[in-house]
Amino acid sequence: MRLGIDFDNTLADFVTLLQRITLERTGFELRGLRERHPGVVDLESIIHAAIGKERFESLMTEIHETDLTVEMPPQPGAVETARRLATQHELVIVTARGDHESAAVHRWLERHGIPIVGYVATNRAPKAPHAIDHGLAVHLDDTASVLEAFDEAHPTVPALIAHPMNAKATRAAHWRSVEDWLAFERLVQSLEQER
To answer: Is this prediction's pTM over 0.85?
Structure first.
């Protein structure tokens, strides 16, 4: 089967790197921000008020467009599971990143020894059409809003991996929810048996 895998916060831990870089560069602690401001939906406004919108956007751009991406730690279990899956399936990275942000992602994948057969940078466009174009049986993502375009008629099974950012997200009945990479591996095995 051909498996679609999101990059940021699914395969690589973008949030941990962002927290580290923000603290190093600005002295502002992002870690625990949600707990310090319970009930606040728009945490971005708090960050912008603390360090400035332009400064925060500059940090985001630096992480996306430089080798800081290569410094991202992998999500727990992601590397080992992705390598195992790649022995029996074809992995395609489907990321919302732009084309100009791709080189660092490829270096991250090489660094961690994850073989892929395809790479799609959607340039912030929806991923669902790319899933069809690349014949993906399943697509794993950490962002619920990305999976909304994978309706019940879509040929790709949408899988949402647990992440604090999607803890309260509304999930469609046909989505598959997985707690971690091992649960995703089990999902892939069950989908393969259904074929």
So the answer is: yes
